[in-house]
Protein backbone atom coordinates (compact mmCIF):
# COMPACT_ATOMS: atom_id res chain seq x y z
CA UNK A 1 0.00 0.00 0.00
CA UNK A 2 1.50 3.32 -1.06
CA UNK A 3 1.71 6.28 1.25
CA UNK A 4 -0.64 9.18 0.62
CA UNK A 5 0.63 12.32 -1.05
CA UNK A 6 2.69 14.35 1.37
CA UNK A 7 3.77 11.46 3.56
CA UNK A 8 7.46 10.72 3.44
CA UNK A 9 7.35 7.84 5.92
CA UNK A 10 4.78 5.66 7.60
CA UNK A 11 3.27 7.47 10.60
CA UNK A 12 2.49 4.09 12.11
CA UNK A 13 6.19 3.25 12.13
CA UNK A 14 7.21 6.68 13.35
CA UNK A 15 4.62 6.99 16.11
CA UNK A 16 4.51 3.45 17.47
CA UNK A 17 6.11 3.37 20.90
CA UNK A 18 9.00 0.98 21.38
CA UNK A 19 11.08 0.11 24.45
CA UNK A 20 12.90 3.21 25.63
CA UNK A 21 10.18 5.57 24.43
CA UNK A 22 10.07 8.75 26.46
CA UNK A 23 6.98 10.94 26.35
CA UNK A 24 8.88 13.97 27.55
CA UNK A 25 11.17 13.81 24.52
CA UNK A 26 8.60 13.90 21.73
CA UNK A 27 7.18 17.07 20.23
CA UNK A 28 3.46 17.78 20.44
CA UNK A 29 3.42 20.24 17.55
CA UNK A 30 5.30 18.17 14.99
CA UNK A 31 3.98 16.37 11.92
CA UNK A 32 6.27 13.33 11.71
CA UNK A 33 6.58 11.89 8.26
CA UNK A 34 4.40 14.50 6.61
CA UNK A 35 5.99 17.14 4.43
CA UNK A 36 2.86 19.14 3.64
CA UNK A 37 1.01 21.94 5.38
CA UNK A 38 -2.45 22.09 6.91
CA UNK A 39 -4.31 22.29 3.59
CA UNK A 40 -2.27 19.40 2.18
CA UNK A 41 -3.18 17.40 5.27
CA UNK A 42 -6.88 18.14 4.88
CA UNK A 43 -6.69 17.15 1.22
CA UNK A 44 -4.87 13.91 2.04
CA UNK A 45 -7.46 13.10 4.72
CA UNK A 46 -10.28 13.47 2.19
CA UNK A 47 -8.46 11.42 -0.45
CA UNK A 48 -7.70 8.60 1.98
CA UNK A 49 -11.18 8.44 3.54
CA UNK A 50 -12.63 6.12 0.86
CA UNK A 51 -9.66 3.79 1.32
CA UNK A 52 -10.37 3.47 5.02
CA UNK A 53 -14.06 3.07 4.25
CA UNK A 54 -13.40 0.23 1.80
CA UNK A 55 -11.14 -1.63 4.21
CA UNK A 56 -13.81 -1.31 6.91
CA UNK A 57 -16.43 -2.62 4.49
CA UNK A 58 -14.26 -5.62 3.67
CA UNK A 59 -13.82 -6.35 7.37
CA UNK A 60 -17.58 -6.12 7.84
CA UNK A 61 -18.29 -8.27 4.77
CA UNK A 62 -15.93 -10.98 5.98
CA UNK A 63 -17.91 -11.31 9.21
CA UNK A 64 -21.04 -12.14 7.26
CA UNK A 65 -19.42 -15.45 6.35
CA UNK A 66 -18.14 -16.50 9.75
CA UNK A 67 -15.14 -14.16 9.81
CA UNK A 68 -14.27 -13.36 13.42
CA UNK A 69 -11.90 -10.47 12.97
CA UNK A 70 -12.51 -6.96 14.22
CA UNK A 71 -10.54 -3.83 15.05
CA UNK A 72 -10.60 -1.74 18.20
CA UNK A 73 -9.30 1.82 18.35
CA UNK A 74 -8.59 2.93 21.92
CA UNK A 75 -8.35 6.70 22.38
CA UNK A 76 -6.80 8.29 25.44
CA UNK A 77 -5.80 11.91 25.92
CA UNK A 78 -5.92 14.96 28.11
CA UNK A 79 -9.06 17.12 27.74
CA UNK A 80 -9.38 19.05 24.47
CA UNK A 81 -6.68 16.95 22.78
CA UNK A 82 -9.10 16.05 20.00
CA UNK A 83 -10.60 12.63 20.67
CA UNK A 84 -13.93 13.94 19.47
CA UNK A 85 -12.37 15.20 16.27
CA UNK A 86 -10.86 11.79 15.57
CA UNK A 87 -14.25 10.20 16.05
CA UNK A 88 -16.00 12.79 13.89
CA UNK A 89 -13.48 13.20 11.10
CA UNK A 90 -11.74 9.83 10.87
CA UNK A 91 -14.19 7.26 12.22
CA UNK A 92 -17.00 9.41 10.80
CA UNK A 93 -15.86 8.71 7.26
CA UNK A 94 -16.69 5.00 7.41
CA UNK A 95 -20.12 3.44 7.25
CA UNK A 96 -21.88 3.91 10.63
CA UNK A 97 -23.28 0.39 10.30
CA UNK A 98 -19.82 -1.00 10.85
CA UNK A 99 -18.89 1.18 13.81
CA UNK A 100 -19.33 0.33 17.48
CA UNK A 101 -18.50 3.38 19.53
CA UNK A 102 -18.34 3.39 23.29
CA UNK A 103 -17.55 6.45 25.40
CA UNK A 104 -16.51 5.52 28.92
CA UNK A 105 -17.58 8.10 31.47
CA UNK A 106 -16.97 8.08 35.20
CA UNK A 107 -18.10 4.63 36.36
CA UNK A 108 -21.52 4.11 37.92
CA UNK A 109 -21.88 2.70 41.41
CA UNK A 110 -22.61 -0.72 39.93
CA UNK A 111 -19.53 -0.53 37.72
CA UNK A 112 -17.39 0.56 40.65
CA UNK A 113 -18.54 -2.48 42.61
CA UNK A 114 -16.99 -4.75 39.97
CA UNK A 115 -13.45 -5.26 38.77
CA UNK A 116 -12.38 -2.47 36.39
CA UNK A 117 -12.59 -4.67 33.28
CA UNK A 118 -16.18 -5.70 34.02
CA UNK A 119 -17.70 -2.78 32.13
CA UNK A 120 -15.13 -2.98 29.36
CA UNK A 121 -15.59 -6.59 28.26
CA UNK A 122 -19.17 -6.32 26.96
CA UNK A 123 -18.16 -3.29 24.87
CA UNK A 124 -15.51 -5.01 22.74
CA UNK A 125 -16.36 -5.03 19.03
CA UNK A 126 -18.39 -7.84 17.53
CA UNK A 127 -16.90 -9.73 14.57
CA UNK A 128 -16.53 -7.46 11.56
CA UNK A 129 -16.93 -4.29 13.56
CA UNK A 130 -14.75 -1.24 13.90
CA UNK A 131 -14.86 -0.59 17.62
CA UNK A 132 -13.85 2.70 19.19
CA UNK A 133 -13.26 3.32 22.88
CA UNK A 134 -13.41 7.01 23.76
CA UNK A 135 -11.49 6.63 27.03
CA UNK A 136 -11.17 3.08 28.25
CA UNK A 137 -9.79 0.67 30.83
CA UNK A 138 -6.70 2.86 30.75
CA UNK A 139 -8.48 5.45 32.89
CA UNK A 140 -7.98 2.92 35.68
CA UNK A 141 -4.22 3.35 35.47
CA UNK A 142 -4.26 7.06 34.60
CA UNK A 143 -6.67 9.13 36.69
CA UNK A 144 -6.55 6.41 39.35
CA UNK A 145 -2.78 6.68 39.54
CA UNK A 146 -2.78 10.48 39.48
CA UNK A 147 -5.25 10.76 42.35
CA UNK A 148 -3.98 7.77 44.28
CA UNK A 149 -7.29 5.90 44.00
CA UNK A 150 -5.28 2.72 43.42
CA UNK A 151 -2.07 1.89 45.26
CA UNK A 152 1.12 0.60 43.66
CA UNK A 153 0.23 -3.08 44.00
CA UNK A 154 -3.21 -2.57 42.57
CA UNK A 155 -1.77 -0.60 39.64
CA UNK A 156 0.64 -3.47 38.92
CA UNK A 157 -2.26 -5.90 39.01
CA UNK A 158 -4.16 -3.74 36.54
CA UNK A 159 -1.27 -3.44 34.06
CA UNK A 160 -1.02 -7.22 34.08
CA UNK A 161 -4.77 -7.68 33.77
CA UNK A 162 -4.84 -5.26 30.84
CA UNK A 163 -2.09 -7.09 28.99
CA UNK A 164 -3.82 -10.42 29.58
CA UNK A 165 -7.11 -8.96 28.40
CA UNK A 166 -5.58 -7.56 25.22
CA UNK A 167 -3.75 -10.80 24.50
CA UNK A 168 -7.07 -12.56 24.83
CA UNK A 169 -8.70 -10.05 22.48
CA UNK A 170 -5.98 -10.59 19.88
CA UNK A 171 -6.39 -14.35 20.12
CA UNK A 172 -10.12 -13.94 19.53
CA UNK A 173 -9.50 -11.92 16.37
CA UNK A 174 -9.58 -8.32 17.57
CA UNK A 175 -6.70 -6.09 16.49
CA UNK A 176 -6.20 -3.43 19.14
CA UNK A 177 -4.82 -0.03 18.11
CA UNK A 178 -4.11 2.27 21.02
CA UNK A 179 -3.68 5.98 20.40
CA UNK A 180 -2.65 8.66 22.85
CA UNK A 181 -3.23 12.14 21.47
CA UNK A 182 -0.33 14.17 22.75
CA UNK A 183 -1.28 17.79 23.27
CA UNK A 184 0.79 20.44 25.04
CA UNK A 185 -0.46 22.38 28.05
CA UNK A 186 -0.16 25.61 26.06
CA UNK A 187 -2.32 24.26 23.27
CA UNK A 188 -4.85 23.02 25.82
CA UNK A 189 -4.96 26.47 27.35
CA UNK A 190 -5.73 27.98 23.95
CA UNK A 191 -8.50 25.48 23.31
CA UNK A 192 -10.08 25.97 26.72
CA UNK A 193 -9.90 29.72 26.23
CA UNK A 194 -11.58 29.38 22.84
CA UNK A 195 -14.39 27.37 24.45
CA UNK A 196 -14.91 30.14 26.97
CA UNK A 197 -15.29 32.71 24.20
CA UNK A 198 -17.75 30.80 22.03
CA UNK A 199 -21.30 30.35 23.36
CA UNK A 200 -21.79 27.36 21.01
CA UNK A 201 -19.02 25.64 22.93
CA UNK A 202 -19.92 26.48 26.52
CA UNK A 203 -21.59 23.07 26.83
CA UNK A 204 -18.24 21.38 26.26
CA UNK A 205 -16.59 23.22 29.12
CA UNK A 206 -16.60 22.10 32.71
CA UNK A 207 -14.82 23.87 35.56
CA UNK A 208 -13.38 20.50 36.57
CA UNK A 209 -11.36 20.49 33.30
CA UNK A 210 -9.20 23.15 34.88
CA UNK A 211 -8.80 21.14 38.06
CA UNK A 212 -7.36 18.14 36.18
CA UNK A 213 -5.08 20.49 34.25
CA UNK A 214 -3.38 21.20 37.56
CA UNK A 215 -2.12 17.60 37.61
CA UNK A 216 -0.49 17.78 34.19
CA UNK A 217 2.92 16.43 35.11
CA UNK A 218 1.39 13.64 37.20
CA UNK A 219 -0.68 12.67 34.17
CA UNK A 220 2.40 12.65 31.95
CA UNK A 221 4.12 10.35 34.47
CA UNK A 222 1.11 8.06 34.46
CA UNK A 223 1.08 7.97 30.64
CA UNK A 224 4.80 7.23 30.56
CA UNK A 225 4.35 4.33 32.98
CA UNK A 226 1.36 3.11 31.00
CA UNK A 227 3.40 3.00 27.78
CA UNK A 228 6.17 1.10 29.52
CA UNK A 229 3.80 -1.44 31.02
CA UNK A 230 1.21 -1.95 28.28
CA UNK A 231 2.75 -1.17 24.90
CA UNK A 232 3.16 -4.66 23.51
CA UNK A 233 3.88 -5.97 20.02
CA UNK A 234 0.31 -7.31 19.94
CA UNK A 235 -1.30 -4.08 21.08
CA UNK A 236 1.12 -1.20 20.67
CA UNK A 237 0.57 2.37 21.79
CA UNK A 238 0.90 5.12 19.21
CA UNK A 239 1.71 8.58 20.55
CA UNK A 240 0.29 11.07 18.07
CA UNK A 241 1.33 14.74 18.20
CA UNK A 242 -1.96 16.56 18.59
CA UNK A 243 -1.26 20.29 18.70
CA UNK A 244 -2.04 20.31 14.99
CA UNK A 245 -5.49 18.78 14.77
CA UNK A 246 -5.18 18.18 11.02
CA UNK A 247 -2.04 16.13 11.53
CA UNK A 248 -3.47 14.05 14.37
CA UNK A 249 -6.49 13.13 12.23
CA UNK A 250 -4.38 12.28 9.22
CA UNK A 251 -1.95 10.21 11.29
CA UNK A 252 -4.68 8.21 13.04
CA UNK A 253 -6.41 7.61 9.71
CA UNK A 254 -3.14 6.34 8.27
CA UNK A 255 -2.42 4.11 11.28
CA UNK A 256 -5.86 2.58 10.84
CA UNK A 257 -5.37 2.14 7.10
CA UNK A 258 -1.99 0.48 7.60
CA UNK A 259 -3.35 -1.78 10.32
CA UNK A 260 -6.35 -2.87 8.27
CA UNK A 261 -4.24 -3.26 5.12
CA UNK A 262 -1.98 -5.57 7.12
CA UNK A 263 -4.94 -7.85 7.79
CA UNK A 264 -5.04 -8.84 4.12
CA UNK A 265 -8.78 -8.36 3.79
CA UNK A 266 -10.55 -9.69 0.70
CA UNK A 267 -14.03 -9.40 -0.68
CA UNK A 268 -15.82 -12.64 0.23
CA UNK A 269 -16.35 -15.07 -2.61
CA UNK A 270 -19.94 -15.75 -3.65
CA UNK A 271 -21.62 -18.22 -1.31
CA UNK A 272 -24.06 -19.18 -4.05
CA UNK A 273 -23.94 -20.24 -7.70
CA UNK A 274 -23.57 -16.93 -9.53
CA UNK A 275 -24.69 -18.27 -12.92
CA UNK A 276 -27.74 -19.96 -11.42
CA UNK A 277 -28.78 -16.82 -9.58
CA UNK A 278 -28.34 -14.65 -12.66
CA UNK A 279 -30.63 -17.02 -14.54
CA UNK A 280 -33.22 -16.96 -11.73
CA UNK A 281 -33.14 -13.17 -11.73
CA UNK A 282 -33.96 -13.02 -15.43
CA UNK A 283 -37.22 -14.81 -14.72
CA UNK A 284 -38.00 -12.89 -11.55
CA UNK B 1 -35.76 27.57 8.01
CA UNK B 2 -35.37 28.12 4.28
CA UNK B 3 -35.51 25.29 1.80
CA UNK B 4 -32.27 24.19 0.16
CA UNK B 5 -31.49 25.22 -3.38
CA UNK B 6 -33.54 23.19 -5.82
CA UNK B 7 -36.40 22.47 -3.46
CA UNK B 8 -39.69 24.08 -4.42
CA UNK B 9 -41.69 22.67 -1.52
CA UNK B 10 -41.05 20.88 1.74
CA UNK B 11 -40.49 17.16 1.13
CA UNK B 12 -41.68 16.50 4.66
CA UNK B 13 -45.05 18.02 3.81
CA UNK B 14 -45.23 16.31 0.43
CA UNK B 15 -44.18 12.85 1.59
CA UNK B 16 -45.92 12.61 4.96
CA UNK B 17 -48.78 10.14 4.71
CA UNK B 18 -52.22 11.41 5.64
CA UNK B 19 -55.60 9.63 5.84
CA UNK B 20 -56.53 8.34 2.42
CA UNK B 21 -52.92 7.78 1.38
CA UNK B 22 -52.61 5.03 -1.20
CA UNK B 23 -49.23 3.43 -1.80
CA UNK B 24 -50.27 2.15 -5.22
CA UNK B 25 -50.90 5.70 -6.40
CA UNK B 26 -47.51 7.25 -5.68
CA UNK B 27 -44.58 7.19 -8.07
CA UNK B 28 -41.33 5.51 -7.04
CA UNK B 29 -39.17 7.37 -9.54
CA UNK B 30 -40.35 10.91 -8.82
CA UNK B 31 -38.54 13.69 -6.97
CA UNK B 32 -41.41 15.54 -5.29
CA UNK B 33 -40.67 19.15 -4.53
CA UNK B 34 -37.22 19.11 -6.09
CA UNK B 35 -36.65 20.86 -9.40
CA UNK B 36 -33.01 19.88 -9.90
CA UNK B 37 -31.27 16.90 -11.40
CA UNK B 38 -29.01 14.30 -9.84
CA UNK B 39 -25.95 16.52 -9.58
CA UNK B 40 -28.04 19.31 -8.04
CA UNK B 41 -29.33 16.81 -5.52
CA UNK B 42 -25.85 15.65 -4.61
CA UNK B 43 -24.74 19.26 -4.22
CA UNK B 44 -27.74 20.10 -2.03
CA UNK B 45 -27.05 17.03 0.14
CA UNK B 46 -23.47 18.19 0.74
CA UNK B 47 -24.53 21.76 1.48
CA UNK B 48 -27.20 20.67 3.94
CA UNK B 49 -25.08 18.10 5.79
CA UNK B 50 -23.51 20.64 8.18
CA UNK B 51 -26.98 21.96 9.02
CA UNK B 52 -28.14 18.49 10.03
CA UNK B 53 -24.87 18.00 11.92
CA UNK B 54 -25.33 21.21 13.89
CA UNK B 55 -28.93 20.39 14.84
CA UNK B 56 -27.79 16.95 16.02
CA UNK B 57 -25.02 18.56 18.06
CA UNK B 58 -27.51 20.91 19.70
CA UNK B 59 -29.75 17.98 20.57
CA UNK B 60 -26.76 16.18 22.07
CA UNK B 61 -25.58 19.27 23.95
CA UNK B 62 -29.02 19.78 25.48
CA UNK B 63 -28.91 16.30 27.00
CA UNK B 64 -25.75 17.17 28.88
CA UNK B 65 -27.84 19.49 31.03
CA UNK B 66 -30.77 17.22 31.80
CA UNK B 67 -32.45 17.56 28.39
CA UNK B 68 -34.49 14.42 27.71
CA UNK B 69 -35.23 14.82 24.04
CA UNK B 70 -34.04 12.49 21.31
CA UNK B 71 -34.95 11.55 17.76
CA UNK B 72 -35.55 8.13 16.27
CA UNK B 73 -35.44 7.44 12.56
CA UNK B 74 -37.19 4.19 11.66
CA UNK B 75 -36.27 2.79 8.24
CA UNK B 76 -38.34 0.17 6.47
CA UNK B 77 -38.12 -0.96 2.88
CA UNK B 78 -37.90 -3.82 0.44
CA UNK B 79 -34.40 -5.20 -0.15
CA UNK B 80 -32.02 -2.96 -2.10
CA UNK B 81 -34.26 0.09 -1.58
CA UNK B 82 -31.36 1.98 -0.06
CA UNK B 83 -31.60 1.84 3.74
CA UNK B 84 -27.85 1.35 3.89
CA UNK B 85 -27.30 4.40 1.70
CA UNK B 86 -29.43 6.54 4.01
CA UNK B 87 -27.39 5.36 6.97
CA UNK B 88 -24.08 5.92 5.17
CA UNK B 89 -24.80 9.19 3.40
CA UNK B 90 -27.33 10.97 5.61
CA UNK B 91 -26.79 9.65 9.13
CA UNK B 92 -23.09 9.30 8.29
CA UNK B 93 -22.72 13.06 8.02
CA UNK B 94 -23.40 13.70 11.70
CA UNK B 95 -21.03 13.06 14.58
CA UNK B 96 -20.92 9.31 15.32
CA UNK B 97 -20.84 10.11 19.04
CA UNK B 98 -24.44 11.25 18.82
CA UNK B 99 -25.73 8.30 16.81
CA UNK B 100 -27.26 5.11 18.17
CA UNK B 101 -27.78 2.71 15.30
CA UNK B 102 -29.56 -0.59 15.66
CA UNK B 103 -30.06 -3.06 12.83
CA UNK B 104 -32.80 -5.56 13.60
CA UNK B 105 -32.13 -8.95 12.04
CA UNK B 106 -34.27 -12.07 12.22
CA UNK B 107 -35.05 -12.51 15.93
CA UNK B 108 -33.09 -14.96 18.06
CA UNK B 109 -34.83 -17.80 19.86
CA UNK B 110 -34.77 -15.77 23.07
CA UNK B 111 -36.28 -12.76 21.31
CA UNK B 112 -38.95 -14.93 19.74
CA UNK B 113 -39.92 -16.22 23.16
CA UNK B 114 -40.84 -12.66 24.20
CA UNK B 115 -43.41 -10.20 22.99
CA UNK B 116 -42.29 -8.51 19.78
CA UNK B 117 -41.52 -5.18 21.48
CA UNK B 118 -39.23 -6.80 24.05
CA UNK B 119 -36.13 -6.50 21.90
CA UNK B 120 -37.11 -3.05 20.64
CA UNK B 121 -37.51 -1.19 23.93
CA UNK B 122 -33.86 -1.38 25.10
CA UNK B 123 -32.74 -0.02 21.72
CA UNK B 124 -34.61 3.29 21.85
CA UNK B 125 -32.29 6.31 21.83
CA UNK B 126 -30.92 7.74 25.06
CA UNK B 127 -31.52 11.44 25.76
CA UNK B 128 -29.74 13.60 23.22
CA UNK B 129 -29.16 10.77 20.80
CA UNK B 130 -30.06 10.37 17.15
CA UNK B 131 -31.36 6.82 17.05
CA UNK B 132 -31.72 4.84 13.84
CA UNK B 133 -33.60 1.58 13.45
CA UNK B 134 -32.59 -0.31 10.31
CA UNK B 135 -35.74 -2.43 10.20
CA UNK B 136 -37.76 -2.38 13.38
CA UNK B 137 -40.89 -3.52 15.21
CA UNK B 138 -42.64 -3.00 11.88
CA UNK B 139 -41.21 -6.26 10.60
CA UNK B 140 -43.72 -7.86 12.95
CA UNK B 141 -46.60 -6.48 10.91
CA UNK B 142 -44.88 -6.78 7.52
CA UNK B 143 -43.08 -10.07 6.94
CA UNK B 144 -45.30 -11.63 9.61
CA UNK B 145 -48.42 -10.55 7.76
CA UNK B 146 -47.07 -11.59 4.35
CA UNK B 147 -46.18 -15.09 5.51
CA UNK B 148 -49.12 -15.51 7.84
CA UNK B 149 -46.91 -15.88 10.93
CA UNK B 150 -49.44 -13.76 12.80
CA UNK B 151 -53.19 -14.03 12.37
CA UNK B 152 -55.57 -11.10 11.93
CA UNK B 153 -56.29 -10.69 15.65
CA UNK B 154 -52.62 -10.76 16.54
CA UNK B 155 -51.83 -8.19 13.85
CA UNK B 156 -54.52 -5.90 15.26
CA UNK B 157 -53.02 -6.31 18.70
CA UNK B 158 -49.62 -5.39 17.33
CA UNK B 159 -50.81 -2.25 15.53
CA UNK B 160 -52.35 -1.09 18.79
CA UNK B 161 -49.26 -2.00 20.80
CA UNK B 162 -47.07 -0.10 18.33
CA UNK B 163 -49.19 3.02 18.57
CA UNK B 164 -49.18 2.85 22.36
CA UNK B 165 -45.42 2.33 22.35
CA UNK B 166 -44.81 5.30 20.07
CA UNK B 167 -47.15 7.51 22.09
CA UNK B 168 -45.17 6.56 25.14
CA UNK B 169 -41.89 7.37 23.35
CA UNK B 170 -43.20 10.78 22.35
CA UNK B 171 -44.27 11.49 25.92
CA UNK B 172 -40.79 10.59 27.12
CA UNK B 173 -39.21 13.05 24.68
CA UNK B 174 -38.41 10.93 21.62
CA UNK B 175 -39.54 12.28 18.26
CA UNK B 176 -40.19 9.33 15.97
CA UNK B 177 -39.68 9.77 12.21
CA UNK B 178 -40.75 6.76 10.17
CA UNK B 179 -39.53 6.40 6.61
CA UNK B 180 -40.53 3.82 4.05
CA UNK B 181 -38.22 3.85 1.04
CA UNK B 182 -40.47 3.16 -1.90
CA UNK B 183 -38.64 1.31 -4.65
CA UNK B 184 -40.20 -0.30 -7.73
CA UNK B 185 -39.82 -3.99 -8.58
CA UNK B 186 -38.06 -3.01 -11.80
CA UNK B 187 -35.52 -0.92 -9.98
CA UNK B 188 -34.97 -3.70 -7.46
CA UNK B 189 -34.34 -6.10 -10.33
CA UNK B 190 -31.69 -3.77 -11.73
CA UNK B 191 -29.98 -3.47 -8.38
CA UNK B 192 -29.99 -7.20 -7.71
CA UNK B 193 -28.62 -7.77 -11.20
CA UNK B 194 -25.86 -5.25 -10.55
CA UNK B 195 -24.93 -7.09 -7.34
CA UNK B 196 -24.64 -10.32 -9.30
CA UNK B 197 -22.21 -8.71 -11.73
CA UNK B 198 -19.89 -7.10 -9.19
CA UNK B 199 -17.69 -9.39 -7.07
CA UNK B 200 -17.30 -6.62 -4.47
CA UNK B 201 -21.06 -6.87 -3.94
CA UNK B 202 -21.59 -10.63 -3.88
CA UNK B 203 -21.54 -10.52 -0.08
CA UNK B 204 -24.65 -8.36 -0.10
CA UNK B 205 -26.63 -10.87 -2.14
CA UNK B 206 -28.58 -13.74 -0.73
CA UNK B 207 -30.68 -16.16 -2.78
CA UNK B 208 -33.50 -15.59 -0.28
CA UNK B 209 -33.73 -11.96 -1.51
CA UNK B 210 -35.28 -13.36 -4.67
CA UNK B 211 -37.72 -15.49 -2.69
CA UNK B 212 -39.13 -12.44 -0.86
CA UNK B 213 -39.35 -10.59 -4.17
CA UNK B 214 -41.98 -13.14 -5.17
CA UNK B 215 -44.29 -11.73 -2.50
CA UNK B 216 -44.07 -8.16 -3.76
CA UNK B 217 -47.79 -7.39 -3.95
CA UNK B 218 -48.40 -8.98 -0.55
CA UNK B 219 -45.71 -6.73 0.88
CA UNK B 220 -47.29 -3.68 -0.70
CA UNK B 221 -50.62 -4.66 0.89
CA UNK B 222 -48.92 -5.05 4.26
CA UNK B 223 -47.25 -1.64 3.91
CA UNK B 224 -50.56 -0.04 2.94
CA UNK B 225 -52.27 -1.51 5.99
CA UNK B 226 -49.34 -0.46 8.17
CA UNK B 227 -49.67 3.16 7.02
CA UNK B 228 -53.40 3.11 7.70
CA UNK B 229 -52.97 1.68 11.18
CA UNK B 230 -49.82 3.35 12.44
CA UNK B 231 -49.33 6.68 10.70
CA UNK B 232 -50.28 9.07 13.48
CA UNK B 233 -49.82 12.82 13.93
CA UNK B 234 -47.29 12.02 16.67
CA UNK B 235 -45.32 9.50 14.63
CA UNK B 236 -46.14 9.89 10.95
CA UNK B 237 -44.92 7.69 8.13
CA UNK B 238 -43.11 9.31 5.24
CA UNK B 239 -43.15 7.41 1.97
CA UNK B 240 -40.03 8.43 0.06
CA UNK B 241 -39.66 7.62 -3.65
CA UNK B 242 -36.46 5.60 -3.80
CA UNK B 243 -35.79 4.69 -7.42
CA UNK B 244 -33.50 7.73 -7.52
CA UNK B 245 -31.09 7.14 -4.66
CA UNK B 246 -29.91 10.74 -4.69
CA UNK B 247 -33.46 11.99 -4.18
CA UNK B 248 -34.24 9.55 -1.37
CA UNK B 249 -31.14 10.66 0.52
CA UNK B 250 -31.86 14.33 0.03
CA UNK B 251 -35.50 13.93 1.05
CA UNK B 252 -34.70 11.99 4.22
CA UNK B 253 -32.03 14.51 5.13
CA UNK B 254 -34.54 17.30 4.68
CA UNK B 255 -37.24 15.51 6.69
CA UNK B 256 -34.74 15.14 9.52
CA UNK B 257 -33.66 18.77 9.28
CA UNK B 258 -37.25 19.98 9.33
CA UNK B 259 -38.11 17.72 12.24
CA UNK B 260 -35.11 18.82 14.31
CA UNK B 261 -35.62 22.47 13.37
CA UNK B 262 -39.17 22.14 14.67
CA UNK B 263 -37.80 21.15 18.08
CA UNK B 264 -36.46 24.68 18.59
CA UNK B 265 -33.05 23.51 19.76
CA UNK B 266 -30.71 26.02 21.37
CA UNK B 267 -27.11 25.95 22.49
CA UNK B 268 -27.17 25.42 26.25
CA UNK B 269 -26.35 28.47 28.34
CA UNK B 270 -23.16 28.31 30.39
CA UNK B 271 -23.66 26.33 33.59
CA UNK B 272 -20.78 28.18 35.21
CA UNK B 273 -19.65 31.78 35.70
CA UNK B 274 -18.00 32.61 32.38
CA UNK B 275 -16.07 35.62 33.70
CA UNK B 276 -14.80 33.70 36.69
CA UNK B 277 -13.64 30.77 34.56
CA UNK B 278 -11.91 33.07 32.07
CA UNK B 279 -10.03 34.62 34.99
CA UNK B 280 -9.09 31.19 36.39
CA UNK B 281 -7.83 30.15 32.98
CA UNK B 282 -5.48 33.11 32.76
CA UNK B 283 -3.73 31.86 35.88
CA UNK B 284 -3.80 28.19 34.86
Automatic annotation (TrEMBL), chains A, B:
Taxonomic superkingdom: Bacteria
Pfam family, one: PPK2
Keyword Transferase: yes
Transmembrane segments: none
GO MF term (any one): kinase activity
Alphabetic keyword roster: Kinase, Transferase
InterPro entries: P-loop_NTPase, Polyphosphate_phosphotransfera, PPK2-rel_1, PPK2-related
Polyphosphate kinase-2-related domain ranges (all copies): 39-265
PANTHER family (alphabetical): POLYPHOSPHATE:AMP PHOSPHOTRANSFERASE (PTHR34383:SF3), POLYPHOSPHATE:AMP PHOSPHOTRANSFERASE-RELATED (PTHR34383)
Protein name, per record: Polyphosphate kinase 2 family protein
Organism: Arthrobacter cryoconiti
Source taxonomy: Bacteria, Bacillati, Actinomycetota, Actinomycetes, Micrococcales
Amino acid sequence: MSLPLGFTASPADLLRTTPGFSLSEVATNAAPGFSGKKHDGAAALAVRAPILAQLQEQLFAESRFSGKRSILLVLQAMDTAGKGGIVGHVVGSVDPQGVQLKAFKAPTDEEKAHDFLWRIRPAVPSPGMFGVFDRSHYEDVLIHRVHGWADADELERRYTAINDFETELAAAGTTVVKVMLNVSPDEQLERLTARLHDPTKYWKYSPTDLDERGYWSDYMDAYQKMFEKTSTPTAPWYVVPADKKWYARLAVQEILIETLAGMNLQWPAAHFDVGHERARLKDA
